[in-house]
Amino acid sequence: MSKSPNAVAIPGLALDGPSPFPMYRKIYDGIRALVLDGRLQPGQALPSTRSLAAERGISRNTVVAAFEQLAAEGFLVTRVGDATRVAAGPKAKAQSHASSRLQIARPPRFSRRGAALAAAVVSLPASVGRWRAFRAGVPALDAFPHSLWARMSAARWRSADSSLAAYGDPAGYRPLREAVAAHLSTARAVRCTADQVIIVSGSQQALDLIIRLLLDAGDVAWIEDPGYLGARAAFLGAGVTAVPVRVDGDGFDPAAALAAHPGARLAYVTPSHQYPTGAVMSVARRLALLAWARRARGWIIEDDYDGEFRYRGKPLASLQGLDDHARVIYVGTFSKVLLPGLRLGYVIAPPELAAGLIRAKAVSDRHCAAIDQAVVADFITQGHFARHLRRMRELYQERQSALVAAAARDLCGLLDIASSPAGMHVVGYTARGIDDRLAAAAATQHGVETTALSSFRMARRGPGGLVLGYAQAAPAEIESGVRALRAALIEVKGHARSQKPVSKSR
User: Fold this and answer.
1) For the stretch 249-278, what's the b/e string if a residue is b when 16 or more beta carbons lie within 10 angstroms of its beta carbon?
2) Contact 86, 75 (CB under 8 A)
3) In percent, how much of the chain has pLDDT > 90?
4) Is 388-499 a CATH 3.90.1150.10 domain?
5) What confidence tier does 401 reach under pLDDT thresholds 50, 70, 90?
6) Labelling 463: which of 63, 99, 283, 413 has CA 20 to 30 A away?
7) 251-252 and 451-452: which strand pairing?
8) Average pLDDT, stretch 482-506?
9) What is the pLDDT of residues 327-374, one digit of tens each?
10) Per-domain boundaries in the chain
11) pLDDT digits (tens, 9 = 90+) for 64-102
């Protein structure tokens, strides 16, 4: 009696059912899985390609293609005059495959540096996708000149400049470096040449490169407290001890830093608009910090993440512009002034560090995307960048005013928000009895994104607050966001009141 056409010559090989793959791929995947799971043993003979094709009612060439691929990958062995058999090697593969499933719960064994990197927190969790009020650090994507950018990008792709499609200079596209140097000298009083400009994949890469280049594991650095989580993570990942230094109305306090740890080798500061409090470092403290760097031969990282956005008077001059001894490393980014998705930033390195940073950049990721750099260079040199900054300053001032006004009306007694002369976010200080971490969590449940001020602290002290970004939120979103935030704060305050113990009268 002939075999049924639906018989399966290889036990466990299921070829029926819907699949996006062609039949030869289904045969390949099925036999491969049976070998890895140990259901087909080493040396076990398989039916001939002719008989398997006849039994399944498919072309023999389809079966041959699957068998040849499996043989090429070492799963099957074919010999003239003998049946096709399962190779001897896959037994070990099957055992390791099975054991890996049993051991999947075991934590991986990282190096000390790897463990530190795996534990580092660059930013607090946020939803992926459309931005919601009031996520900080996000520019007005709705006001970006997308059509202009598309035309400029298309023009670059149409150009005959083949160098943009090849490997690029680790230091960055030369015209962009020149444009950055020219802009910063005028807008931020930065003193540099194009040779000191290094284009990087955002400020986070800049911090990582600088810290790894200058500090050894176990070295000490000063960091603002509260301060930027990404900087803390970069120090942690490099095995550097980050000593928190308090921030007050005059910004980072060098005297407090020296009292906390006089042996630091580097200081990380955001002097023009401290993140997240918004404080501006006073001139006296700037000069004191520069004096320390000169005296101790220490380094200063000046992170000027949003210094372009100042609404009262001109943008403040950089700390780097006051440095006469080349101890300040200036870091900037296009993420806030253009688009976060560009992943482009820059380092202005002291001359003695420039060559080392360029080599470190090459080790990290060779170079940034040349086409994107060329478009940014065109955007700056053709005057679009300066116009865009002017528009964004006006827009952000309007949106900040809308947030402050709505908060004064709806959040009185819950959150105290004052206007700020700069930046893309404000800090609202929570009323007594409102835990800022609980408030941030409740806000998320009400459809609002905000971050607790205490989340940015290393030392557990200081008032509670919420960091509220307004740059990305249109006026209608600001209004609805404030109402949602009010509901969240009332909920947290009411819960806290209900949890208070009631004193018993005698």
Assistant:
1) eebbbbeebbebeeebbbbbbbbbbbbbbb
2) yes
3) 67
4) yes
5) very high
6) 283
7) unpaired
8) 77
9) 999 999 999 999 999 999 999 999 999 999 999 999 988 899 999 999
10) 23-102, 175-382, 388-499
11) 998 989 988 889 998 887 889 998 865 444 444 444 444
Structure tokens at 367: 């170079």
The alpha carbon dihedral of 233, 239, 244, 245 has a sign of: negative
Nearest to 373 by CA among 213, 168, 204, 92: 168
Q: Where are the alpha helices (DSSP H) in 159-243?
A: 174-187, 203-214, 229-237
Q: What residues have CB less than 8 Å from 260, skipping those under 6 apart? A: 222, 243, 244, 245
Provide the CATH topology of domain 175-382: Aspartate Aminotransferase; domain 2 (3.40.640)
Structure tokens at 142: 């709705």
The one-letter amino acid at 45: A
Give me 167's structure tokens. 């490997």
Report pTM: 0.81
What backbone torsions phi and psi does residue 82 show, to the nearest 5 degrees?
-130, 160
What is the C-alpha separation between 278 and 330, in angstroms, rounded? 19
The per-residue pLDDT for range 125-155, each reduced to its tens digit, is 554 556 688 999 999 999 999 999 999 999 9
Give the contacts of 389 (CB within 8 A, at least 6 positions apart): 308, 337
DSSP characters for 258-294?
HHH-TT-SEEEE--SS-TTT-----HHHHHHHHHHHH
CATH architecture of 23-102: Orthogonal Bundle (1.10)
